[in-house]
Design goal:
This protein has 103 residues and is an alpha+beta fold. It contains 3 helices and 5 strands; from the N terminus they run βββααββα. The chain has a 3-stranded antiparallel beta sheet with strand order 1-2-3, covered by helices on one side.
Length: 103
Amino acid sequence: MPDRFSVFEVSLRKRGRKWAWTVAPTDGAPIMLGSESSRSAASYKANCALFLLLLSAPFIAAQGGGLRNTRLGLIAALANGWLWLHEYGTCVKFTEVGAALLA
């Protein structure tokens, strides 16, 4: 049950001309990361990644996974048709099947 209420940190760092972003649990290595040319774009992408992690948490728990399997849980939710991912990868929404799992 401790993995059910995980706390994540979003961090932005200037790296040369780019801004690197990471989303990581407070006690571990980054789960999602990337870089963008502007600070605002990096902040946006990092917050989108955080949202995806938080959105996938119920599906990870349903499959008996822990924090280490967070990224795999999101991939599984998309592969099983529980979530729909926008073509640009910036937003997701529940499908009818995914909403029924949480009902």
